[in-house]
């Protein structure tokens, strides 16, 4: 279980770095409709801070 969690955390870090490098607005939501990733380009477009968007419902 710990290995799986470490692998998931590593994959999340890798995708987060990639998403930050593409310089396009990008947001990822979970099955409950909450933001789990929100990059700076999305924040610039929407006028929200990343901190404000994370964990909030997208609607």
TrEMBL record:
<feature type="domain" description="PAS">
    <location>
        <begin position="11"/>
        <end position="59"/>
    </location>
</feature>
<dbReference type="Pfam" id="PF08448">
    <property type="entry name" value="PAS_4"/>
</dbReference>
<dbReference type="InterPro" id="IPR013656">
    <property type="entry name" value="PAS_4"/>
</dbReference>
<dbReference type="InterPro" id="IPR035965">
    <property type="entry name" value="PAS-like_dom_sf"/>
</dbReference>
<dbReference type="InterPro" id="IPR000014">
    <property type="entry name" value="PAS"/>
</dbReference>
<protein>
    <submittedName>
        <fullName>PAS domain S-box protein</fullName>
    </submittedName>
</protein>
């Amino acid at each position: 279980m710990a290995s799986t969690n470490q692998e998931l955390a590593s994959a999340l870090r890798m995708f987060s770095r990639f998403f930050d490098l593409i310089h396009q607005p990008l947001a990822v939501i979970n099955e409950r409709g909450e933001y789990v990733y929100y990059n700076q380009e999305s924040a610039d477009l929407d006028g929200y801070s990343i901190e404000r968007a994370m964990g909030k419902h997208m609607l």
